Amino acid sequence: MLTLITIAKDEAVAMAKFLRHHQSLFDEMIVVDTGSTDETVAIAQKNGARVFSFTWCDDFAAARNFSLEQATGKWVMYLDFDEVIAPSDFKRIREAIKGPHACYLLPQWNYYNQPQHQEWQPVRGRYPKREKGQLGFFVADQYRLFPTGLGLKWHGRVHEDLALSVKAAGFKPQGLDVPIHHYGYVGTDERNAGRNEMYGKLVRKKVEDDPDDWKALLELAYILVQEGQGREAIPLLEKLVTKGPEGPVLSRAQVMLGTLYNADNRPEEAIAILHTTVTDNPTWLFGWTDLIKLLIEGGHWEQATIAMEVAKQTFGEDPLLLKLECQLLIKTRRIVEAIPIARRVTELMPGMQEFAKLADQCEALARKEGLI
Asked: Phi and psi of 104, rounded to 5°?
């Protein structure tokens, strides 16, 4: 039996649709209410959920752990009310829980329509209905599906995760390619502002709880940048890249530091730190894209070309790399070579129609100059 656990506050608008959509996936649905003043509780009960109350204490991990304690299923999955599992993936989840015990990492697709996000990538058309109206997303792998009875617990007031608990239980990370479609970042400006304010407060409390939590320090750096305090984030990130642990936290800190160095008119330092990133973690796509972008901006054509070739050997025909390759070819006056690249970018990223126009412009210029 599979139990859905979720926490809620004033989710009356989304509640019924969310529960009905996922009803055939779960055998038990649990809603933990953290102080709603609308019809959240009544709507949840009407749609078959078991509802429990939890006094909010500025701690998402505490609320999630309470919700886990209420589950009676052999397996648990948690979702929030601005998240959706595509019905076409329901079968894959049900098949996964027929197998041996495992703690599954699922990719959370955070839809985000501002391409400047550090790890933004375009939608590819894999889930047309879910992607409709969205330009792109960034991915966060999270433990979302796991057996009960293992003593697992979330840690962290915000951006809470199970990683420490899963490791302590002796489980190795295991991925399940079932995206969680998350729409929390494409809500109204008012809702986004309220969420950002709350997260900023909780991240600061999280750092106070454990000043040596590297993940929390990286989250604080993100908050500072979001609040327009990029320079204040630089010493924090410098501490992370010199003393922090290896892995995703280090790579993300290095890439963010490179971006801030460049914004602070320190391009050579930015390029150096990104060189370190791709050397230490050559499979980190966003280290390569940021490095190549800075090399192009600085007119380092030869270095940019070499980096592009190495990255293509690793990632193949990735649209983000093709987009940069097109820009590099145009900058170096290789206009004819840029035309098919620009057209391929449009094929892979239908939402990026500016590259179709760019290909037309390049073709017209090439004809004018007698190149084709």
From this structure: -90, 130
Mean pLDDT of 288-298: 96
Q: Is residue 322 part of a domain?
A: no
Residues spanned by the domain of 92: 2-186
Q: Does residue 302 lie in a domain region?
A: no
Residue 15 lies in a domain: yes
- Name, in order, each residue with C-beta under 8 angstroms of 329's C-beta and a sequence gap of 6 or more: 335, 337, 338, 341
C-alpha pair distances (Å), 95 with each of 21, 29, 110, 242, 366: 19, 19, 25, 43, 54
Confidence of residue 341 (pLDDT cuts 50, 70, 90): confident
Give the CATH number, domain containing residue 128.
3.90.550.10
pLDDT digit string (tens) for 227-266? 999 999 999 999 999 987 888 889 999 999 999 999 999 9
Q: What is the mean pLDDT of residues 120-135?
A: 91
Closest to 44 measured CA to CA, from 66, 20, 60: 20
Q: What is the mean pLDDT of residues 37-62?
A: 96
Give me the residues paired with residue 136 across strands: 122
pTM score, whole prediction: 0.90
SS3 content of the chain, % helix, strand, coil (to 5): 55, 15, 35
> Would you call 136 helix, strand, or coil by DSSP?
strand
Asked whether residue 51 is domain-assigned, the answer is yes
- ∠ at Cα 292 (287, 298), nearest 5°? 130
Closest C-alpha to 284, from 268, 273, 269, 295: 273
Tokens of 267: 């391009």
Closest by Cα among 208, 189, 191 to 59? 208
- Nearest one of 179, 181, 177, 184 to 158, comparing CA atoms: 184
| Total domains in the fold of the chain | 1
- 215 Cβ partners below 8 Å, 6+ apart? 156, 159, 249
